[in-house]
Write a structure and sequence with these properties.
The complex is a heterohexamer, with 3 copies of chain A and 3 copies of chain B. Chain A is α+β, with helices and mostly antiparallel strands. Chain A is 22% helix and 41% strand. In chain A, helix 1 runs antiparallel to helix 2. Chain B has one domain: Orthogonal Bundle (Ammonium transporter fold). Classes of the chains: A alpha+beta, B mainly alpha. The complex binds adenosine-5'-diphosphate (3 copies).
Chain lengths: 112, 434, 434, 434, 112, 112
C-alpha cells in the first residue's frame, strides 16, 4: 500500500475528490495547509504599507491505496488538479506498511 | 465649547420650544431640567462608551496578529476601567472645576459635592455631564493603545495611562472645555475633541511608539491584520457611536445637534470613498481595512469642526481627510520608520489637527459654515491651540515614558513577543477552535 | 406616511404633553422644536445606521463562504457610503422636495437651502429628518447585496447601486413618503417601508440574481454558511435597530411610537418561533440560522403595518411571515432555480409585500387595528401601490443591469470566483489565525 | 420601585422642568406624556434587549467549546422569543395587573385592554412600559442558560423556560415592582432587579445545574473558553446596555437617571479592576475573561442599589463585588462541585443578593447614599425579600425540573454531548473556515 | 521506527492520548483534518435548501514509535478509538528512517 | 527522495524557512498542529478554576528533498529551530518513492 500525499490548489478539492471516487477511491483525509514554493507569496497592502504573505493556502490530500491503483490515482489527481499555472502543487508517494480499520480491525487492503 | 453651547442651548430651547410666557420667566428658570436634552445626553453617553467597548477594541484587535488580539482587547478594557476610576478620583475635578486658566482645582475629588439634583449649568444633570465627559477620558488613552500593541508590558500600560491622563488629558481638557480654560476663553473652536482627544492622543502615540521601538521584525515580517472583519465591526461601532461623540457634544437635543450629526456623517462617508479610490488607484484593489480607516479619518477630522461647518464644508473636510491621512500612514511607517503600529498618529493625530485648522476656513459663512469668525485671526487661534497642545503632550509623554521605563520597564522580552502577549501576559488563547 | 404622522404628532404633543394655555397658542407654534422628539429621532437615526453597519453586513457576511466574507462586508460598507453621498448630492432632493406626484425637483441638490434652524415641518430639525431618511436609503440597496454575493464585480456593484438609487429608490420614496407623492395622497399605508424598502429591494434582487446567473456550482456544491454566529450577531443588531426603523418612522417620541415598538417586537418574536417550529418539523432540527431568518421575516413583514395594527394583529402577521417566507425561500431556490443567494426576495420582498397587503386587514378595529379604513378599498389601494412598485422596480432593474453589463461587466471570472473575492477583488484574507 | 419612582418623576418633572403655572394645574395633568421621558424609555428598552441579543448570547457563547457555541446562541435567542410571546400571552398580566399582594390577575392576557393612548400612570405610554419590562423577562431566563450549557436538551430548555417564567419570574416581579406587591409595599429596595432578576436566576441556575449534573468530564477535562474575544464583545454590550437596565428603571430622563447611570458605571469599573488585581495576585496573570467577569459582577451587584447609593457607595459595592464573586466562582465549582458552567450563581446570584443587602447600608446618607431609611430595619426588610425569593425560586425550580425530566427528559446523550450540540441538536457547524 | 498515523473521531482524542500515555508513548502530534470515506457526509438544511457536507471533521494523530511497540500502540489506539460505528477511522503504519530531537540533537529511539 | 517532517515551535517558522531557502530548498508545506510530549501543557485559569491545556501549538513542516541534501537540511532545521528549551520539537525522515509536479508532470528530483 502507498500513501499518496497531494498538495493542490484549494478550489480543486471537489473536482479531485469526485474524480478519485470515479476510479473507486472511496476514502481520503484532507487538511488545510500553507504552501511555500516557486509560486511566490503575494503582498497585501494595508494603509500604504506592504505586508508580505509568504505562504499560500493549499489543500493537502492523504490517500492510502493499494499498490495496484497507485499509478492510476496519481494520474487522475494530476489531470484533475492541473490548471497549468504555477503553484498547482505536488504529488508524493510514500510506502505504507500496515493499514487497519478501527471499527472492524480489518487490515491492509480490506481496511481501505 | 461645550459649556458655551450649553448656554446657547438653554436659550434655544426656551425661545423655540417653549412659549413666550416661559421665556419671560427664564431668568430664574435657566437651570431647569429638560427631559429631551437629558434623554439625548444619556443616550450619547452610552454611544461614546460603546465606541471604546467594544468598538475601538475590535477595530484595533482585528489589526494585530491572532496571538495578540486578547491583549489588545485587554488594554482597551483595562484602560477604560482605569480612566473611569481616575475620573472619579481626581480627573473630573482637575478638568472641570474652576481652578485657573491652566488647570482645575481638587474641590471635586471623589466627586465630592456632586448632588443628585444639580444640573450642569445647562439643562441636564451634572451627573450625566460627568459621565459623558468620562467617556471621552476613556477613549482618548484607548486610542493610544494602537501605538504600542504587540510589545508593551501590561504593567507599563497601566502606569503610562494613569500618568498620561493626569498630566496630559486633564489639563488640555481644562484648557479647551472648562469655562476657565485659556483656549475656551480665547475662542478656540473644538466642539468634540480635535485638540483634546485626537491631537493629544496622536502626538503621544507617535512619541511613545518611537521611544518604545518597533515590533521585532518591523517592517520586514510584520503580519497583515489577522481579522479584517473584526476591524470592520469595530469601525462600524465607532461610526454609530461617533454621533454621540459629536452631536452629544452639543449637550442638547436641538438644531445644532442635528446639523452636527449630518456633517459628521457626510465627512465619514466622503472620507471612506476617497480613501477607497486612492487605494484602488495606488494598489489596484480597494480593501475593507482601507475604507474603514478612511471612515475613521473622516470622523476624526470633522470632530473639532462638526459644530461649525455646513454640509459642503463636511464634503471638503472628508475629502481631505481621506487623502491626507492615507499618505500620512505610509509616511510615518515607511519614511519616518516609526512603528506607530495601528497608525494612531497618521489617522487621529493628523486628522484631528487638520480638522482643528480647517474649521477656521470651512466654518465661515462663505464656505457654508455656521460660525462668524474672521478666517485669519481664527486660523491663528486654532494653530496656537494645536501648537501648545502638541508641545505639551509631547514633552509630558517623554517624561512619562522615562518614568515607566524606570518603574515597570517598557517592553516584554523578545520571547514573550514571539509567543504572543495573549499567552504570556494574560494566560489565554484567542481561538480555541477544535 | 411620515409627514402625515408628523402632523399628528404635533397635535398629540400639544394636546397631551403641554398645557391648555400653549395649545391655544398652537397656531404659530406648530413648528416648535420638541427636544424629546429630537432626542428620539437622533437615536432612531443611529439605530437605523447600526442596522446596516455592522448589522446587515454581518448577517450577510456570515452566510457566505469564508473566502468571500470580506467582500460582503465591503459591499455593505461601500454601498452605505455611496448612498450617503448620493443622498446629499441629489437623492434627498428627488425624494423629498416638492416636485410633482412622481418625483421631487432638484431644489435641494447638495442640500442647498437647508439651514441649521429649520424644522422638518414637525417638531425636530430638518437636518435630522435628512439623516434619518438617509439611513433608509443606505439599507435598501444594502439589502440587495444578498442577491449577488460571491460573484458580482465590485465596480458593477457601485454602478448598479448608483443608478438604482436614482431610478428606483428616489422615485418610490417620493411616491409614498413625500407630501406630493401619489401614494401618500391616495392613502396607501406604509409606515416604514414595506413598499419603499422591502418590495423595491426584494424585486430588484430577484431580477438581478436571475440576470447575473447563479454562483458556479449552484445548487449542487454551494457551501453552508461559514459563520452562523456572525449571522446571529448581525440579526440581533437588525432586531434592536429595527425599533429605530419602525418606531422612528413615527417621527416623535409619543404614544404611536410606543405601540409601533410593541407590535414590531411581537411580530419578530412570533415569526422566529414559527420559523423554528416549521424547520423543526420539516428537517428534524431547529437551527440558529433559521430562527434568525424568521426574525428578519417577521420584522420585514410588520414594517409597513407597524403603525396600524395592534398586538393581536402583530401575532397574526408574525405567524404568517414565519410560514410564508420559510416556504418562499425553498420555492425561489429550488423551484424557480434562481440563486437569490441570501434570499432577499423570499424574506424581504415577500415579507414586505405581504405586510403591505395584510395591513389592510389587520389594521382595522375589528382585528384590533388602529386604522379606520374600509378593508376592501384599502386592499385595492395597497395592492395598486405594490403592483406599480413591483413593475417599476423590475423594469428599471432590467435596464440598469444592461447598462452595468455594458459599462463594467457584471461578473468576475470563474477563477476569481473560485479563489474568492476577498483575495482577488480586495486583496485581503479573512481569517489569518496562526 | 418603578411605579413609585414614576410618581416621583412626575412630580420632579413638573416641579423642575415646567413652570409654576403648570405645576398648579398638575392635578389633572399628572398623566401627561413627556416626550423626553418617552424618548429615553424607548432607548432604554432597545438597550436592554441589546443586552440579551446579542450581548449575553456572545458573553456565554464565547465561554463554551466551539462545538457548542451555536447551541448557546440558539438558547438565548429562542428563550428571548419565547419570553416575549409569553409576556404578551399572560406574564405581563400576572406581573403587573392589580391582583393581590402575591400575583396579578389575568385581566390583561393577550394585552387585552391596552390602548395606544394609555400612559403607564407616569409620563410615557403603557406600551413602552410593557416593552421595557418585557426585556427584563427576556434576559432573566437568558441568564440561567449559563448553568446548563453543553448538555441540556433543547426541548427541555423551552419547557423549563416557560414554566419558570410563569412560576418564578411573574410572581417575584409582581411582589417587587407591582403597586400591589408585598415587597413593593413593605419598602424593599430593588431598583432594577437584584431580587427580581439576579437572585431568582442565580438560585434557579444553581439548583438546575445540580439536578442536571455536570458536563461529562467535569471538572477534569473541561475546556477553556473557545473565544475570549467573543466573551469580551458580549460583556461590553452588557455594560452599555446596563445603562438602559438601571437608569431606564428610573422610568424618566431625570436627575435620578443621571445618578443611577453614574453609580452603575463606577461599580462596573471598580469591580473590573478589583477582579483583575485579585486574579493577578492569585494566578500571576490578569486575564481578559477575568476582568470582564468582574465587570458583570459589579453591574449585577449595583443593580438593586443603583437608585439609592452615591458615588462612594458605588466604589465600595464594586470593590466587594469584585472580590466576593471571584471567590464565589471557585467555591461553587471546586468546593461544592456543582457545574454551574458559566458561573450564573457565583456572579449573578451572589452579586444580586449582596447588592440587595448592601443597599441597606450604602443607601443611607452617612455613606453618601440618597435614601432615608434606617439601616437596621432596612437590612431586615431586604433580607426578608431575598430569603423569600430564594426559597420560592428554589422550590419552584425543583418542581419544574422534575416536570421537565418527565415530559422531555433533561440531558442529551453522552454521544451527542461529545459530538457537540451544534451538530446534533441544531444541525449546524460553527466555524466553516476553508 | 515507525510513524503511526491514526485518523479518529475527534471526541476520542483524549481517551486515545491517555491510553497511549499508559503504555509509555509520551509524544504525539495532532491535527484537525476533514475525512471522506464510507461514512457519508451529511446534509445541512438552511432556509429550506440542502447543503451537502461531504467532509467530516476527524482528528489525525501522528506518533513516531520504536519498532518494538508499534503493534501494542496500534492495538491500544484501535481499542480505544472504537465505537463500532461507521467512520471510526483508520490506522496506518509508515516507515521512518531517522528521528532527531531538535533541542539536544539526540537521534532515533533517544529522540522520541 | 525523503520527506522531512519537522515539528517546531511556531515562532521559529520564518527563521527555518529562510535558512532552508539559503541552502536551496525552495518548497515546503506547512501546517498548524497541536503537540503533546515531554513539554507538559499548561493550565489556564478562568474565574478561579483551572483548565488543563494538554496540547501545545506547534508548527509542522513537510519538505520533500533529494537524498543528497537530506542531512544538510535536517542540520539546518535543527540548528535554526533550536532554543535549548524543552518542546523544541522533532525532525523525522521518511522515505518517498515518487514525486510529481502537477503543473508539468515532471517527476522525482525534477518535481521538487
Ligand atoms: N519540496 C517540497 N516539499 C513539500 N511540499 C512542497 C515542496 N515543493 C512544493 N511544495 C508544495 O507544493 C506547492 C506548490 O509548489 P510550487 O513550487 O509553488 O509550484 P509548482 O507545484 O507549480 O512547482 C507549494 O505551495 C508547497 O505547498
Ligand atoms: N484510503 C484512505 N486514505 C486515507 N484516509 C482514509 C482512507 N479511507 C478512509 N480514510 C479516513 O478515515 C475516515 C473514516 O473512514 P470511513 O470509510 O468513513 O469509515 P470506517 O473507518 O468506519 O471504514 C475517513 O473520514 C477518512 O478521514
Ligand atoms: N513520538 C512522537 N511522535 C510524533 N511527534 C512527537 C513525538 N514526540 C514529540 N512529538 C512532537 O514534538 C513536540 C515536542 O516534543 P517534546 O517531547 O515536548 O519536547 P522535546 O522535543 O524538547 O523533547 C511535541 O509537542 C510533539 O508535537
Amino acid at each position: 500500500m502507498k500513501l499518496i500525499k497531494a498538495i493542490i490548489k484549494p478550489f480543486k478539492l471537489e473536482d479531485v475528490k469526485d474524480a478519485l471516487s470515479e476510479i473507486g477511491v472511496v476514502g481520503m483525509t484532507v487538511m488545510e495547509v500553507k504552501g511555500f514554493g516557486r509560486q511566490k507569496g503575494h503582498t497585501e497592502i494595508y494603509r500604504g504599507s506592504e505586508y508580505t504573505v509568504d505562504f499560500l493556502p493549499k489543500t493537502q490530500l492523504e490517500i492510502v491505496v493499494d499498490e495496484s491503483i497507485v499509478e492510476q490515482a496519481v494520474d487522475v489527481i494530476i489531470k484533475t488538479a492541473n490548471t497549468g499555472k504555477i503553484g498547482d502543487g505536488k504529488v508524493f508517494v510514500i510506502p505504507v506498511e500496515t493499514a487497519v480499520r478501527i471499527r472492524t480491525g480489518e487490515t491492509d487492503s480490506e481496511a481501505l | 465649547m461645550i459649556l458655551r453651547f450649553c448656554l446657547k442651548s438653554v436659550f434655544a430651547i426656551f425661545t423655540l420650544a417653549l412659549m413666550p410666557a416661559i421665556a419671560s420667566a427664564a431668568g430664574h428658570e435657566s437651570s431647569a431640567l429638560n427631559s429631551g436634552d437629558t434623554a439625548w445626553m444619556l443616550t450619547a453617553t452610552v454611544l461614546v462608551l460603546f465606541m471604546t467597548l467594544p468598538g475601538l477594541a475590535l477595530f484595533y484587535g482585528g489589526l494585530v496578529r491572532s496571538r495578540n488580539v486578547l491583549s489588545v482587547l485587554m488594554h482597551c478594557f483595562a484602560v477604560a476601567c482605569l480612566a473611569s476610576v481616575l475620573w472619579v478620583v481626581c480627573l473630573y475635578s482637575l478638568a472641570f472645576s474652576d481652578g485657573n486658566a491652566w488647570i482645575g482645582n481638587l474641590d471635586h475629588m471623589f466627586l465630592k459635592g456632586i448632588t443628585v439634583g444639580e444640573l450642569n449649568g445647562g439643562t441636564f444633570p451634572e451627573t450625566i455631564f460627568i459621565m459623558f465627559q468620562m467617556t471621552f477620558a476613556i477613549i482618548t488613552p484607548g486610542l493610544i493603545v494602537g501605538a504600542f500593541v504587540e510589545r508593551m508590558k501590561f504593567s507599563a500600560i497601566l502606569l503610562f495611562t494613569t500618568l498620561w491622563l493626569i498630566l496630559v488629558y486633564a489639563p488640555v481638557c481644562h484648557w479647551v472645555w472648562s469655562g476657565n480654560g485659556w483656549m475656551f476663553n480665547n475662542g478656540t473652536i473644538d466642539l468634540a475633541g480635535g485638540i483634546v482627544v485626537h491631537a493629544t492622543a496622536g502626538i503621544s502615540a507617535l512619541i511613545l511608539a518611537k521611544m518604545l521601538g518597533p515590533r521585532t521584525d518591523f517592517p520586514k515580517r510584520i503580519r497583515p491584520p489577522h481579522h479584517p472583519a473584526m476591524v470592520m465591526i469595530g469601525a462600524s461601532m465607532l461610526w454609530v457611536g461617533w454621533f454621540g461623540f459629536n452631536a452629544g457634544s452639543q449637550v442638547a437635543a436641538n438644531e445644532a445637534a442635528g446639523m452636527t450629526m449630518l456633517v459628521t456623517h457626510i465627512s465619514a462617508a466622503v472620507a471612506s470613498l476617497t480613501w477607497m479610490v486612492v487605494e484602488w488607484l495606488k494598489t489596484g484593489k480597494p480593501g475593507l481595512v482601507g475604507i474603514v480607516t478612511g471612515m475613521v479619518a473622516g470622523l476624526a477630522t470633522i470632530t473639532p469642526a462638526s459644530g461649525a461647518v455646513g454640509p459642503m464644508g463636511a464634503v471638503c473636510i472628508g475629502f481631505l481627510a481621506g487623502i491626507v491621512c492615507y499618505f500620512a500612514c505610509g509616511f510615518v511607517k515607511n519614511k519616518l520608520g516609526i512603528d506607530d503600529s495601528l497608525d494612531v498618529f497618521a489617522v487621529h493625530g493628523v486628522g484631528g489637527i487638520m480638522g482643528t485648522i480647517l474649521v477656521a476656513v470651512f466654518g465661515v459663512a462663505a464656505f457654508g459654515g455656521l460660525s462668524d469668525h474672521a478666517i485669519g485671526a481664527q486660523l491663528f487661534t486654532q494653530a496656537k491651540g494645536v501648537g501648545v497642545t502638541v508641545v505639551w503632550s509631547g514633552v509630558a509623554t517623554i517624561i512619562i515614558v522615562y518614568i515607566c521605563k524606570a518603574v515597570t520597564g517598557l517592553r516584554v522580552t523578545q520571547e514573550v513577543e514571539y509567543t504572543g502577549l495573549d499567552q504570556e501576559e494574560h494566560g489565554e488563547t484567542s481561538y480555541n477552535f477544535e
